[in-house]
Amino acid sequence: ELGESYMGLMQFSHDGSRLIAMGFDIGCFDVSTKALRRRISYDELVTAHRDWPSDFPNPIARQSAVSPDGKMLVTSKEARLVFWDLEAEKVWQVLRGNSRLIPMITFICGFAVWAAAWGIIGKRSRQSLAINENQTIGDSGRESLSPRSVPLALKLCRCLIMVGGLVALSIPIVLMFAYGPWLFPTLYFSLFVGLTAITLGASPDYLNFKRTAVLQLVNILALDPVNVVLAALEFALLRSRSVKDYLQTEKR
Q1: Which residue has the higher pLDDT, 73 or 174?
Q2: pTM > 0.85: yes or no
């Protein structure tokens, strides 16, 4: 009566009056009449556990238990327990474990802080070198150049790069928590783009902003339209006259 449903596990109730056959679907049979009293379809299991369908035998059925009287079935998948009332043919109760949201946010923030710290350390190293060069120039009798103020357009570009970095960083981490680590390779490229953007934005390494925008644009390979839009805005800001003059001064 379960058709071609895969049968992976069978269990009798304590009194032996019922048989629970578990596979893609779950069937509750009356042993004396051999009748199917209740059928829990794979779609119902997927809905109750919020899991994604699979071509493999249902892992939910392998982590199930029957009450001694055979009237209650509990199925388990990760941090969710679902109690099925086989008499009333409905879900009786759902117990949830800890949400994935907290560890997901922790991973994103951890990667972002690490990238930002790396960028800030790199900035301090460059500043130390610049100070030493200015002192050398001063000792030679040359006039040291006073630093110019950063144009507003370049500051906005930096903010867009940081936002784009967080978006690119979040894509693979969220998908890894949702589907596991076996993702399409371009999604791991998004992780690289996110770390690079946050590092250069935190520096800030203004001379490499254009290269960062190119990386954000290419991140469409990871199905990231947000960074495509942000990259277009960044290119527009980088083409402004004030930004070009400032970057030309920085190159000297």
Answers
A1: 174
A2: no
